[in-house]
Design goal:
The complex is a heterodimer. Chain A is mostly helical. Chain A is built from 9 helices and 1 strand. In chain A, helix 5 crosses helix 9. At the A-B interface, helix 2, strand 1, helix 3, helix 6 and helix 7 of A face helix 1, helix 2, helix 7, strand 4 and helix 10 of B.
Chain lengths: ~200, ~280
């Protein structure tokens, strides 16, 4: 977790949300947040600080996930600027490890052991390798991701940053900010990039 | 809600759009046609299994236990719920009470779903301690709390009745509107809200279909079958439990038992399903 960034985002939240048009349901939203603050209790690793919105969440919550364009553009740029790439510049890892990681949906719930590694959660929402028929449809299909785009340096960088923080491209994307929050480490993201871009990966066969 | 739906749709389009912009190549094609077929096959298989099970629905055993507990004098005050508890239809009346909750109860000055109301009666009328009930409110493999039996009993007496949450009552309407905002609230490590999974049509997590709770049809599939006998683990679980499990998967902390937050969410969800027929306690995967 990039604490400094989180803090900066949290401090920016009142300023940002002040710029949003007042919605008719703002009163009910304020009441909903007050109810949430009083009606939850910590359980396992799920502590109450998880209920505090960071700046991005606050903007998405207050705009029905449709932030004004100027704000979305600025905030997406900030998110993208905070992406940390591997120092050696190598972005393609091992697609086989990536496939295993993509299968795992564990992590961050109150019943998960916080000592165990977090999964990629990818198949929960995306079609990826054609061999895996049990996939979700919350996100778009990633089948033939690399075949359609190639695996140039530019595409590798795009793919890495998209997994690291999807909000760099779509501010209120449904996809978690896996790298940004420290859920997935550098090597894991590289392995997922390989799963999507390696010509030998089943995704691109 | 419509706004959210549109928002989510726009987000999907934007996602595809930015893929295309960056790559300067055609965006990935949508998943092949086999997707829908696979989903239907899995669902149909379970539906068939459930139909067979419903001949001898295990939930009925819990209804029977609940009936006995409803009618027996219990608790420090040694009174029965049958002679003291008003579920909105008059003291002791269970017929059709479940499908008319959540509703506003003046004596508690709160909007309450069925489970919350029965807990309130157990505390206020029978003299049980709330904290004792809330300590272990849900069933596990070795234990089924009384409240689960009682809710199942009450729900069984609304079998084949139409849901009728009194949304015209301003207090209930207010709870509905707050519940709607709770469903839209994104937070936590993954930025998830209820609506991330349950705010638009035709979504799945893996093979599990996700009902869109903002629609009448979707809300109904979130209501139907609860309380339900869950095949996984062989336990009887309530609608309150189901709400908590959603928050678990949302990576949120745990909602407090029998709280406003859950009552408001249930008001939103069951309210959206109003007018449709509730089939009584069911069977869940």
């Amino acid at each position: 977790m990039t604490n400094k960034l989180f803090l900066a985002a949290a401090m920016a939240a009142p300023l940002l949300t002040a710029a949003l048009p007042a919605a008719a349901d703002a009163d009910h939203r304020a009441k909903a947040i007050a109810v949430i603050k009083k009606d939850f209790k910590p359980h396992g690793q799920a502590s109450l600080d998880r209920l505090a919105e960071d700046g991005l969440q606050a903007v998405c919550n207050r705009s029905g996930n449709k932030p004004p364009e100027y704000l979305a553009k600025q905030m997406q740029e900030d998110q993208l600027a905070a992406v940390k790439y591997p120092p050696d510049g190598k972005l393609l890892g091992d697609w086989k490890s990536g496939e295993k990681l993509a299968q795992s949906g564990r992590g961050f719930t109150w019943s998960d052991d916080p000592g165990l590694p977090v999964g990629g959660n990818c198949y929960n929402c995306h079609q990826i390798s054609p061999q895996e028929h049990s996939f979700g449809t919350v996100g778009p299909s990633l089948y033939q991701f690399g075949k359609l785009r190639g695996n140039s340096e530019e595409i590798q960088k795009y793919t890495y940053s998209r997994i690291y923080n999807s909000k760099s491209y779509n501010l209120c994307s449904e996809m978690p900010r896996f790298g940004h929050i420290g859920a997935l480490k550098e090597k894991q993201i590289k392995d997922l990039v390989a799963l999507l871009l390696d010509p030998d990966s089943p995704v691109n066969k | 809600m419509k706004q959210n739906l549109i928002g989510a749709l726009c987000a999907m389009v934007a996602m595809g759009g930015s893929f295309a912009q960056t790559s300067k190549k055609p965006a990935a094609k949508p998943a092949p046609a086999q997707v829908a077929e696979a989903k239907d096959a899995a669902t149909l298989e379970f539906e068939k299994f459930r139909a067979e099970m419903e001949e001898s629905n295990p939930a009925e055993l819990f209804e029977m236990k609940g009936e006995e507990q409803w009618k027996t004098k219990r608790g420090p005050n040694n009174v029965s719920l049958a002679e003291s508890c008003d579920l909105g239809q008059g003291v002791g009346k269970v017929e059709g009470a479940y499908v008319k909750m959540p509703r506003y109860f003046a004596d508690a000055d709160a909007v309450m779903d069925a489970e919350r109301r029965i807990v309130w009666c157990m505390v206020e009328k029978q003299g049980f301690k709330f904290d004792d009930i809330a300590k272990r409110p849900f069933a596990n493999a070795n234990f089924t709390p009384d409240i689960t039996n009682l809710v199942t009993y009450v729900a069984g007496h609304s079998r084949n009745m139409k849901l009728d949450v009194p949304l015209k009552d301003p207090k209930v309407r207010e709870a509905y509107e707050i519940g709607k905002e709770i469903a839209a609230f994104r937070a936590g490590p993954y930025d998830f809200s209820c609506n991330t999974c349950h705010g638009s049509d035709g979504k799945r997590i893996r093979m599990q279909n996700l009902p869109n709770l903002s629609t009448a049809k979707g809300a109904m599939s979130g209501v139907q079958g609860w309380p339900g006998y869950r095949m996984t683990g062989g336990v009887m679980l309530t609608h309150q439990w189901r709400m908590g499990d959603c928050f678990r998967q949302q990576r949120f902390p745990e909602p407090k038992y029998a709280s406003d937050a859950i009552a408001y969410l249930l008001t939103y969800m069951i309210g959206n399903a109003n007018g449709q027929v509730y089939k009584g306690p069911g069977i869940k995967r």
